[in-house]
Write a structure and sequence with these properties.
- It is a single chain.
- About 20% of the residues lie in helices and about 40% in strands.
- The chain has 5 helices and 11 strands.
- The protein has helices at about 5-15, 125-135, 155-160, 170, 185-195; strands at about 20, 40-45, 50-55, 60-70, 75-85, 90-95, 105-115, 115-120, 140-145, 150, 180-185.
- An 8-stranded antiparallel barrel has the order 2-3-4-5-6-7-8-11. A 3-stranded mixed sheet has the order 1-10-9, with helices on one face.
- It is globular, with a radius of gyration of 18 Å.
Length: about 200
Amino acid sequence: MMRSLSMLVLALMLGACDAVHTREPVGGPLPADSEVDLTGLWRVEEGDVVHIMQLEGGELRLAGVEWDEEQAGFVMHEFDGVLTHDEGAYYLNLGLGGEAREEARYSFFRLLVSDGHMVMLGPRVGHFEAAVEAGELAGWVERREHSRLVHVEADRDALTRFVRPGRVGEQFEVDHPMVLERLTAAREREAGRQGRDSR
């Protein structure tokens, strides 16, 4: 299990591991009554810490700080993302760059949030590879020396119809989750400040 979210995103961006890249996020807008708020400080199980700020409409900003031996200093990595929803399921779509809209790419995860923990399930690359090769999803497969990249070109609606909440075991790596523990939340920090200010 990778213990750094920053390193995972960098590996996905560089195609250094098997991955599914999509042109658009999976899922639709958050429901008005959604209580999922990822804002806070999270620690990857036995690994690094990541800061998440959830903005309006599910837009996310993520940052991780790591020690760089070569530079003998800390390096911060910042990423964009979007939290989406479909039929009771939540998805974390991490931005992989691209200046223009037509160049934008995402890597998505099925997200389970409860009791101070967040579980990220990556897609089963072989499942999406087979779907692209069978014509079920628009896209193409790039085979590199040590990795496979499945480029899904389907639009958001078609992609969301394909990724079904009831097929999680078939479509996602349920045996290899990335587990994050919530260390602090913005609301908890604010409550602490207000408590100190009232003294």
